[in-house]
Design brief:
It is a single chain. The chain is 9% helix and 37% strand. By secondary structure, it is mainly β. The radius of gyration is 19 Å and the shape is globular.
Amino acid sequence: MSVMTDSGRDRRRFTAAVLGAAAAPEPTPVHHRVARGVVVDSTAYMLCLATPNGEERFLYERATTFWRGGEVLPTELRPGDDAVVLCSHDGRLVAERVWAQTARATGVIVEREGDSLRVDPGHGRPRLTVVLPYRSSGRISVRHPRLEPGYLFDAVGTWRDGEVRAVRPVTTQPPYPLRSTPHRPPVRQHSTTVTGIATWYDPAWGRSSHLDPRAVVNGAAYPALDPVGHEGRCDRRTSCLPLPLLSTGASLNLRNDCTRDTAVVPVVGCAAADSWLCDLCPACGSQSAGRLASLTMTSFVALGGRLEAGCFNATMTVAEQEG
């Protein structure tokens, strides 16, 4: 899942010029309430974060929460931790939620040795080593009945020494391997509005924002990229949702159906693994199975998502592109 290239931006500008601005709306800037950076210091009353804008300081309220593989105290955040901050509605001075070292592994299990898995996220991206701590293994096995090669896996955890230490499963996965997934006939639907679930991914793979600028990119990876112009670059399957074919640079109007937050986000890359999964998000009582898109971490938080939950039910609207 890569960031949007110059060709993607050019494609969006060309679409707007030919079909009108409504066919390619401008993306919503990452919300001013969201920051990502490296922890410089964390005390009982203030967090100091090194961000692309320089050092920023955030105060706490009584209700401020901190997550680092579980609920922790602010003093348990460590210098050097990668952190995402959601600020309060009153401005950027006070932190409402803080996540540190948050990681995710989504894909197909290709190897298991003891409490360690190797997960292939697809699309030629590097495989991840996932450790299943004993205290988390029972919870994960409830939603992943077979933790064996060939089976799907999706869990949130924390980065440690280049590995993902899984803490909680995101959704329930089927008790059969990916190769045995029932054939999904292509769904033909002309509606530009689709409901399903939105998830998140880390475009910087745990690297801090001062080492990898993709850490703070606004956008979404999409599981139904048009093969024209993306040949061999998105190893997708037929999605269980009637997703229109899109190109990088296209605009998605997304609504979090739990919080009603909305934003226009650009398609910045391929979310091949999303087309492998046909799951439900255990939020808001929705019954719409299937993944619409994987938002970058900052975009997911800006749209009201909680990183530790991993998903929210969403409605996606794509601008009409017919003259």
